[in-house]
Inverse folding.
């Protein structure tokens, strides 16, 4: 195994985790970002995101000088032979991935590189992006009248927020999309410390690698929308989704992963990637009926719990205060992008309700960005403190600390004993024995 010097452009979720994990294996990593404040904070050990285990690894490798944070792209490129592009690709107005940042960075690479280089698309990008990135770099090299060899490859990330360190350190697979066997071998060497126990590096052509990322996320999103639709049907027929899930998940062809009903998926990946793949399909003359249905089911699912609350309590909620447990789109992250909580809380407020919210990590972001200046929301630093003077609990995010709460304390704290469970976590019969009214999805 050989130590390699690497540049990572972009210190968001993917770029930061990638840079820190590569540095942990002894590589020299230059993390580059145009945000001077972010870079300054990273040098102090202040992270822009919450990810379990990331802060400790970052501090250790920064102290060991394995990782350098800089706003100077040329500094990184001059000292490395491999450059990862890990900038954001947000959802565009037309549903496509917005590649503005990727293309800007590609031109900057061409303007600053001073030797042969491997450029790696780590950002989630549509099929054909690597080719355009290479053309952008080559145009800048031509303007400078220099002749450096450039290889642009695809190496999509498959990190789960909340488990990203483990996913990077012990990956299910590492996909390398390249048309140059020598470059593939370089990447194999770079990833060897992460794949030495199991040969999990899969090489393929560039376009297939780009498609694989979208296909993987769309498949997982499909499973979530499927089980949510089955749960909604269970609601109408009197079947129990928890029993149904056990029945179908025990089939080894199906399994249990991503078959948990809830309020819909969110985050920075699934909603964006499903829509981007829909756009890609349409642009290439294909109408993706299944993917469109997956997206529609998910959008509707975020309103399903609201409909259930209104069915029970009526349209006018002005006399009700709700305790909301969980704001992030999933546990073990502070990410609220496309989180069901945003729609649920805003809809409750539209109907006159007041909100008492608690989340282990997301409240600062919620106050600053998603619910800024909304007076109907009060935030609490403890899940039980948020129960005072409340009528009902709404569970939205399945953090571990919500799995086995003190239901007797809940009963004694709430003005009316109501729980609306958006994650199907609790035992309906046990709560009934405590005279707590319990409503969930598909149960």
């Amino acid at each position: 195994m050989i130590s390699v010097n690497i540049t990572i452009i972009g210190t968001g979720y993917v770029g930061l985790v990638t840079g820190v994990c590569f540095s942990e294996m002894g590589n020299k990593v230059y993390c580059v970002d145009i945000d001077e404040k972010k870079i300054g904070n990273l040098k102090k050990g202040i992270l822009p995101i919450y990810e379990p285990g990331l802060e400790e690894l970052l501090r250790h490798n920064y102290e060991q000088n394995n990782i350098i944070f800089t706003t100077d792209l040329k500094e990184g490129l001059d000292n490395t032979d491999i450059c990862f592009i890990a900038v954001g690709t947000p959802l565009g107005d037309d549903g496509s991935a917005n590649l503005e940042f990727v293309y800007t960075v590609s031109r900057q690479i061409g303007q600053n590189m001073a030797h042969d280089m491997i450029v790696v698309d780590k950002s989630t990008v549509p099929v054909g992006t690597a080719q355009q990135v290479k053309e952008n770099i080559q145009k800048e090299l031509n303007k400078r009248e220099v002749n450096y060899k450039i290889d642009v490859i695809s190496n999509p990330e498959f990190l789960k927020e909340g488990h990203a360190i483990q996913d990077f350190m012990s990956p299910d697979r590492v996909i390398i999309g390249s048309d140059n066997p020598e470059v593939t071998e370089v990447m194999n060497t770079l990833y060897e410390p992460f794949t030495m126990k199991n040969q999990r590096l899969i090489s393929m052509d560039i376009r297939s690698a780009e498609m694989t990322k979208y296909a993987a996320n769309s498949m997982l999103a499909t499973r979530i929308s499927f089980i949510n639709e089955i749960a909604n049907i269970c609601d109408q027929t009197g079947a129990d989704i928890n029993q149904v899930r056990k029945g179908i998940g025990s089939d080894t062809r199906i399994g249990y992963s991503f078959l948990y009903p809830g309020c819909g998926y969110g985050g920075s990946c699934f909603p964006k990637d499903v829509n981007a793949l829909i756009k890609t399909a349409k642009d290439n003359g294909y109408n993706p009926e299944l993917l469109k249905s997956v997206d529609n089911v998910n959008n509707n699912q975020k309103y399903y719990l609201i409909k259930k609350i209104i069915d029970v309590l009526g349209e006018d909620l002005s006399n009700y205060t709700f305790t909301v447990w969980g704001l992030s789109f999933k546990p073990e992250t502070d990410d609220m992008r496309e989180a069901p909580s945003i729609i649920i809380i805003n809809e409750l407020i539209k109907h006159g309700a007041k909100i008492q919210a608690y989340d282990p990590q997301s409240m600062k972001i919620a106050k600053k960005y998603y619910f800024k200046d909304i007076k109907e929301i009060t935030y609490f630093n403890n899940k039980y403190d948020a129960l005072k003077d409340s009528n009902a609990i709404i569970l939205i995010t399945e953090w571990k600390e919500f799995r086995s709460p003190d239901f007797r304390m809940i009963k004694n704290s709430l003005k009316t004993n109501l729980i609306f469970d958006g994650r199907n976590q609790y035992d309906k019969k046990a709560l009934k024995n405590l005279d707590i009214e319990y409503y969930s999805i598909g149960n």
Q: What stands out?
A: The radius of gyration is 24 Å. The chain has 17 helices and 14 strands. The mean pLDDT is 95. The CA atoms of residues 56 and 312 lie 46 Å apart.
